[in-house]
TrEMBL record:
SUPFAM superfamilies: P-loop containing nucleoside triphosphate hydrolases. Residues 38-302 form the Sulfotransferase domain. The lineage of its organism: Eukaryota, Viridiplantae, Streptophyta, Embryophyta, Tracheophyta. Keywords: Transferase. It is an enzyme of class 2 (transferase). Its EC number is 2.8.2.-. This is Sulfotransferase. The keyword Transferase applies.
Length: 308
């Protein structure tokens, strides 16, 4: 099956999810060649659900003994690099070039990598090894608005702007990169219930309102728990400030830099970062349609999402 794409002329249904031909080749290469190690951390997200933030937080947490996260460290790598440069995507970076396999020995330990593919499409070694998988889920209303803004920015001019009504219809039918979104979130949700030591399921909204607890949970899950002393000294707060939306957005590398993701401008990765921005775009009938779809799809799963 083939559908009109958001950013490219077409999206194709591959292994049960939608993606572009170039991505299909890279995903197959990842599935064939990536050998996860027990100490690896795989960050999994659907686009625009908080990937950049999760990358920054995870990098800061696991490397905090190597790179101090205290505000007097003006040389922390996150101050001069976009998080996507520090935590590469499997399918967009490491395995993007199907003719050349990456030299993973160049990745610092523990190896941090990211992916947008659904759980079922992860390379099998991520499941057979003891590597950890962290998923971040964002409410589908704000995720839609974020995707629509972003893809309209990076869409080739020749395709013209994508009207919100058209994008919304595709979204509600599940047609977005790596979607349907409900299948994506449910795949990781179910795994997190079955194997909680293997898959951690975080929510963007929880991270925004109770970041401290979520960061403690993330540190513990990754095997880098915060000591009492670190907590007392404010290390969690330091990480939260270092990776905060405002701090990251204002960095020179993110204001002026390019190419952290496939040739786009880094500034486009930082827009508003609010819970409930969808209310500025949704009509009552859009709200009703997406609410109904989500209710039906998540029914019985135990997964509850907060949209405002
Ligand atoms: P908005 O478009 O709603 O502002 P991704 O990183 O998966 O591409 O997701 C992008 C979304 O996360 C954007 O949402 C962006 O503004 C927000 N974001 C980027 N950096 C963030 C940070 N440090 N903290 C919270 N949200 C962030």
């Amino acid at each position: 099956p083939k559908e009109k794409g958001w950013r490219t002329p077409h999206l194709f249904l591959f292994q049960g999810f939608w993606c572009q031909p170039k991505e299909i080749r890279a995903i197959i290469s990842t599935q064939n060649h990536f050998k996860a190690q027990d100490s690896d951390v795989v960050l999994a997200t659907i686009p625009k659900s908080g990937t950049t933030w999760l990358k920054a937080l995870t990098f800061a947490i696991v490397n905090r003994n190597k790179f101090s996260v205290q505000p007097d460290n003006h040389h922390h790598p996150l101050l001069t690099h976009n998080p996507h440069e520090l935590v590469p995507f499997l399918e967009y970076k490491l395995y993007a070039d199907c003719n050349r396999l990456p030299d993973l020995s160049l990745l610092p330990s523990p190896r941090l990598v990211a992916t947008h593919v659904p759980f079922g499409a992860l390379p099998s070694s991520t499941k057979t090894s003891k590597c950890k998988i962290v998923y971040i889920c964002r409410n589908p209303f704000d995720t839609f608005v974020s995707i629509w803004h972003y893809l309209n920015k990076v869409r080739p001019e020749s395709l013209g702007p994508l009207p919100i009504e058209e994008a919304f219809d595709m979204y509600c039918r599940g047609v977005i990169g790596y979607g349907p979104y409900w299948d994506h979130m449910l795949g990781y949700w179910r795994e997190s219930l079955e194997t909680p030591n293997k898959v951690l399921f975080l929510k963007y909204e929880d991270m925004k309102v109770a970041e401290r607890n979520q960061l403690k949970k993330l540190g513990e899950f990754l095997g880098f728990p915060f000591t009492e002393e670190e907590e007392k000294e404010g290390r969690i707060q330091d990480i939260s400030s270092l990776c905060s939306f405002q701090n990251m957005k204002d960095l020179e590398v993110n204001k002026k830099g390019k190419g952290a993701i496939s040739g786009f401008e880094n500034k486009d990765l930082f827009r508003k970062a609010e819970i409930g921005d969808w209310m500025n775009y949704f009509t009552p009938s859009m709200f009703e349609r997406l609410s109904n779809v989500m209710e039906e799809k998540l029914e019985g799963s135990g997964l509850k999402l907060t949209a405002c």
